[in-house]
Amino acid sequence: MRITVVGTGYVGLVTGCCFADLGNVVTCVDVNRKKVQELQKGFIPIYEPGLEEIVKRNRNKRLYFTTDLAKAVQNSDFVFIAVNTPPGKNGEVDITHVQEAAKGIARNLNGYKIIINKSTVPIGMGDIVTQIIQKHRTKKQSFDVVSNPEFLREGSAVTDLFKPERIVIGATSRSAAQKVAEIYKPLHRPILITDLKSAEMIKYASNAFLATKISFINEIANLCDQVGADITQVVKGMSYDSRIGGQFLNAGLGFGGSCFPKDVAGLVQIGKDHQFQFRLLPQVLEINRDQRKHFLKKVHKALGSLKGKTIAVWGLSFKPDTDDMREAPSLTIVPELTAQGAKVKVYDPVAMPQAKLFLKNVKYCKNAYEAAKSADAVLVLTEWHEFIQIDFQKLKKLVRKTVIVDGRNIYDPTQMAEKGFSYYGMGRGKPFVF
Ligand code: UDX
Ligand code: UDX
Fold first, then answer.
1. Which residue in 276, 268, 222 sits closest to 428, CA to CA?
2. Quick one: 148 and 211 in the same domain?
3. 150 Cα: distance to centroid of ligand 1 (angstroms)
């Protein structure tokens, strides 16, 4: 198939590269000239395991990068819109990039094409894109609009694209939906063909449900702190019930990233635009925001005043296996530490170049141990694997005080006590303090 993907961000780039790897001829378009030039040279602007090899394998054979939207559209039958849909000031979904992309596509229709919304767009956006194209299209070219939301998790986006648990395709024209389904046939995964609005709602409802799971378990964890229960044991006991399952119930600092905060706030706004007032989802967001404060209270409990204290922060990205800092807990926690007079030393295996754009007045260290040297406490903000593997004997000799505040529950309180560390987790029961 001849495919164009508009927008080469975390979503568009992975989608385009994987479609090429499936044997399609793919042109990835972006307005960001510098990004396109880097991609043309084979450099990947984001950290996504497995992506680099895919680009190397397909570049200049069936995978191309350009800023020329017109030419790309004219030479393709499928045009995916994967530009970003950032949150506006009161959480509404900013659809201007999608509208711009739709206009640019409409002006270059030189035959029947299928335009596919890959970006997370408000319910009803499929109809809006249809109207935009009808208004701006060259002559009376025929086209169809399809919704094909992405369910990619950063850090596992390539796997999620090649092994999706489901593919959702929403369209008014069944034949257009079938044609898009053809692209995914080689994956041999479940494909749901439905109407446009249901497809758009599936995406928001899925993300909002996952975010709700996280805020739910974080509230249970906060009660565990009060009563002295261990949330990891509680989740274990809950997970035997197949209706609950054990996934997405990791208590901790809460969710970040470019999707959950934006999509939950976006869904609340979409509700308001349709005279519907969500009551649960605003609470999900508030609980999530408060988790950062909850964590800082633990740091105070462990250290008292932070003035003059040296604090090591392990992990800056919003989750492991990505360099993405969007809505990362570190963006609120670290400035608060420095504001209260702490000397903060940070380390992240991958995200430090990104973090440097946002986090100032901190010392960037080359590894976890350097950050921990002379620290009065070590804070874990992202559960990178290398922190789980840490050598505690070595760590003990480096820190000034053996205190760990674990925002992602990666350690076991009993083992910490045996190793001589005061340990504060998120819902891990009464802390062992030396
Ligand atoms: C975004 C949203 O976060 C996600 O919810 C949605 O499902 C898909 O789009 P992401 O890929 O993370 O995902 O966005 P981002 O990393 O910001 O990349 C967007 C890209 O589109 C950027 O490279 C930007 O330069 C490009 N773009 C934006 C265009 O090419 N044209 C435009 O008009 C606007
Ligand atoms: C999410 C959805 O999983 C994906 O389907 C959608 O397409 C985009 O948004 P992503 O945001 O990349 O993917 O990461 P994910 O692994 O889902 O984690 C989201 C956030 O929730 C992270 O901040 C993570 O730290 C947090 N999280 C996740 C928890 O706090 N607890 C959990 O149990 C799981």
1. 222
2. no
3. 13
What is the model's pTM?
0.95
- Among 194, 228, 256, give the residue marking a domain's end: 194
Cβ of 320 less than 6 Å from ligand 2: no
State the pLDDT at residue 138. Answer: 81
101 and 111 together in one domain: yes
161 shares a domain with 33: yes
* CATH code of the domain in which 366 resides: 3.40.50.720
Among residues 17, 28, 259, 365, the one annotated as catalytic is: 259
Confidence at residue 370, expressed as pLDDT on a 0 to 100 scale = 98
For 315, the domain range is 195-434
- For the stretch 197-236, pLDDT in tens is 999 999 999 999 999 999 999 999 999 999 999 999 999 9
Atom of ligand 1 nearest to the CA of 100: 33
Considering the domain architecture, whether residues 144 and 249 belong to the same structural domain is answered as no
Residue-level pLDDT at 284: 98
Q: How far is Cα 94 from Cα 84, in angstroms, rounded to an integer?
A: 9
Regions in the chain scoring below 50 on pLDDT: none
pLDDT for position 113:
97
What is the per-residue pLDDT across 367-390, written as a single tens digit (0 to 9) for each? 999 999 999 999 999 999 999 999
Are 286 and 433 found together in one domain? Answer: yes
Determine if ligand 2 sits within 6 Å of the CB of residue 152.
yes
CA neighbor of 169 nearest in space, from 208, 131, 188, 195: 195
Residues 189 and 226 in one domain: no
The tally of domains found in the chain comes to 2
| Ligand 1 centre distance from Cα of residue 376 (Å) | 41
Query: Please, which residues have CB within 8 angstroms of residue 401's CB and are 6 or more apart in sequence?
Result: 375, 376, 377, 422
Which string of DSSP letters, residue by residue, matches 146-167?
A: EE----PPTTSHHHHHHS-S-E
Measured from the Cβ of residue 370, the count of other Cβ atoms closer than 10 Å reads 14
Pair (228, 160) in one structural domain: no
> Among 132, 167, 194, where does a domain finish?
194
* Residues 413 and 424 occupy one common structural domain: yes
Residue nearest to atom 14 of ligand 2 (CA): 153
Residue pair 334/346 in contact (Cβ under 8 Å)? The answer is yes
- 403-406 and 343-347 strand pairing: unpaired
Closest ligand 2 atom, residue 254 Cα: 30
